[in-house]
């Protein structure tokens, strides 16, 4: 599977922190010791962190069978609903889907679903919605006396819920086939605090450790080997060095002491593109 686009631009999260005037000016300590300018910067306020748009990545997958009521469960009767798995790796065979799932990760918040009404008993229509939420008033697929197919982006319930997706048959009953061709998932993105805590970010950033001055180990929800982590420091003569291994991004934040890069603690932003 491969990244195909950004559904919307990755949120430009800006730390409006107030650094000391020496830091803003790039000042240092002529003695050669770590200068006051590289002391931890102040905590950003809620107003200082602005998210311009809600971000989500779109990822394509090879078309894959999630569910087929001809193979399991039987047709949806008129006026009934049925709920299905979409994320993860279990529960697919009992709904007529591919064993082991279709590669949609647990953190996915929506999926690109190809929905088919197969051999309907009577004309009718199907609706689909995230499990555990109220059904929509909009119809996803209308069908007459013959099979019909449509494709749409459908929201999913969080993985912790019993199921991901509910489908309802209105008017005529029908068999339902669900295939997936892609999904949406929040990016791996966070603001890290000087002491190593997660100041703000997406749910895909699970934890952060701070083993030494200026050093951070950030754990995320997937292997990031081969991905591109980026560390950003906003303001001042600072920079971040990052690399990935397994599910962890390792980072060191630096300032300059008498022209020499020196690790120290500060707020910084992590973004991982895969």
Provide the CATH architecture of the largest domain. Sandwich
Q: Based on Cα principal axes, name the global outline.
A: elongated
Structural class computed from helices and strand pairing: mainly beta
Major pleated sheet: 5 strands, antiparallel
Strand content bin: over 45%
Strand order of the largest sheet: 1-2-9-4-7
Number of domains: 2
Percent helix: under 10%
Oligomeric form: single chain
Distance between the termini: 11 Å
Number of strands: 18
Low-confidence region ranges: 1-41, 44-54
The overall pLDDT average reads: 82
CATH class of the largest domain: Mainly Beta
Radius of gyration based on Cα positions: 24 Å
What's the helix count?
1
Q: What's the CATH topology label of the largest domain?
A: Jelly Rolls
Order of helices and strands: EHEEEEEEEEEEEEEEEEE
Write up this protein.
It contains one helix and 18 strands. It is mainly beta and 274 residues long. It folds into two domains: 17-55 and 187-273, no CATH class; 56-185, Sandwich (Jelly Rolls). The strands form four sheets. Strands 1-2-9-4-7 form a five-stranded antiparallel beta sheet, with no helix packed on it. Strands 12, 13, 15, 16 and 17 form a five-stranded antiparallel beta sheet that branches. A four-stranded antiparallel beta sheet has the order 3-8-5-6, with no helix packed on it. Mean pLDDT is 82; it is low at 1-41 and 44-54.
Q: How are the SSEs ordered, and which strands pair?
A:
Blueprint (H helix, E strand, L loop, with lengths): L1 E7 L12 H5 L30 E13 L12 E4 L25 E9 L5 E7 L10 E3 L4 E8 L9 E7 L3 E11 L2 E5 L5 E4 L3 E8 L2 E6 L7 E5 L6 E7 L2 E10 L2 E4 L4 E6 L1
Antiparallel strand pairs: 1-2, 2-9, 3-8, 4-7, 4-9, 5-6, 5-8, 10-11, 10-18, 12-13, 13-16, 14-18, 15-16, 16-17
